[in-house]
Amino acid sequence: MSHRFFLQPHVFLCRGKRHWVILDVNRDKYLCVDRRQFEALGPSLKGWEGSGCTAAPASENAGALADDLLSLGILSERAADAKDALPTAYPLPTEAIDPDLPVPSRRSFCTRAGAFFASSARASRELRGQRFQLIVESVRARKSRNAGRALLSDFERARSLVSVFDRLRWYYPRSYLCLFDSLALIHFLARFGVFPDWVFGVTADPFEAHCWVQAGNVVLNDTVERVSAFTPIMSI
Questions:
Q1: Which three-class secondary structure state does DSSP give residue 164?
Q2: What span, in angstroms and rounded, lies between the C-alpha atoms of 12 and 167?
Q3: CA dihedral 212, 215, 219, 221 (to 10 degrees)
Q4: Residue 202 — φ and ψ, nearest 5°?
Q5: For 219-235, what is the mean pLDDT?
Q6: Per-domain residue ranges for the chain?
Q7: Residue-wise over 90-117: b if at least 16 C-beta within 10 A, else e?
Q8: By the 8 A CB rule, do 142 and 206 touch?
Q9: Given this model, what pLDDT does residue 187 score?
């Protein structure tokens, strides 16, 4: 192919055994593309040479795929604001918060309950009435503003906050879903100056998407076994 294509900044990539998975944050959509078909397009993508992937033989299907991705706003023919077409690299956790931590004191519940319910209500409100793109941008901007602060300078304090959140969660009237629970926890921890990563992962065969909260090598609201089944596609 003679054309040069550029990956849009709101798009994230993940390589599976038989598919490439594309996350389009602006449209809040995932797209699975046959691996050989996408890798035939690869040499025409900016930054592909750094992906470590071998290009598949050129085919007419690659041209059709390029047209489809251009029409969806995933690719562009303009270099402005583009990023390299590289799969997301993010380390999976090796540890998790111990679910059998001592029960927080009554004082901890009382002093942090307001922050919990405000954070949970905010997450509910955002997921109900706000575009996913704007939620992601807001979380990323807040974290960027606080980039100079230590992520978990007092890890025991962070463990205590997660323990309080988990126990108060029993009293919040909403089904347990990874997107809501991770966003609510992100908002809750931010109120106490803790800014971990919000990680999104996928499996392609069959397709499944999941998200969790992670600080360093520690997953804060899931198990290592569960999240290790997913390949990270975006972290905030």
A1: helix
A2: 34
A3: -60
A4: -140, 160
A5: 96
A6: 6-76, 95-235
A7: bebbeebbeeeeeebeeebeeebeebbe
A8: no
A9: 98
